[in-house]
Amino acid sequence: LCSDVRQRIQQRIAQAFGISSASMYLTKPTFFSRINNTEAKTTHDEYWHPHVDKVTYGSFDYTSLLYLSDYTEDFGGGRFVFMDAGSNKTIEPRAGRVSFFTSGSENLHRVEKVHWGTRYAITISFTCNPDHGIGDPVL
């Protein structure tokens, strides 16, 4: 299932950005996130700060998020926000929704603090550098 989801997302990103999916490689970290309103224990838990994935993770060229819970039904807050100079663009998570973007400085973003409930998502990232590629996770 993980491999199938990764392949479908990879193909859609390649199509949207006009590149070959064969030139994209899964990279780390690919992770599951469970965000609620508990206090952050480390600075890495402070997801609400604006950041650029390429700077934060190094190997990311394309970032995707597969949402597993619904905004306003399962949690409050927790929307994904692109920090644009003119006006911010906000994505409301919905179970099954996939968002993706290039991971460079053109896509400064953050996640709003979750006020209640739990927000679940999977981050699946890709690199164009085969040296940074990893295999599909094995469960």
UniProtKB/TrEMBL annotation:
GO MF annotation, one: oxidoreductase activity, acting on paired donors, with incorporation or reduction of molecular oxygen
Domain called Fe2OG dioxygenase: residue spans: 28-130
GO cellular component annotations of the record: membrane
SMART domains cross-referenced by the UniProt entry: P4Hc (SM00702)
Family matches, as PROSITE patterns: FE2OG_OXY (PS51471)
InterPro entries referenced in this protein's UniProt entry, alphabetically: OGFOD3, Oxoglu/Fe-dep_dioxygenase_dom, Pro_4_hyd_alph, Pro_4_hyd_alph_FE2OG_OXY
Record-given protein name: OGFD3 protein
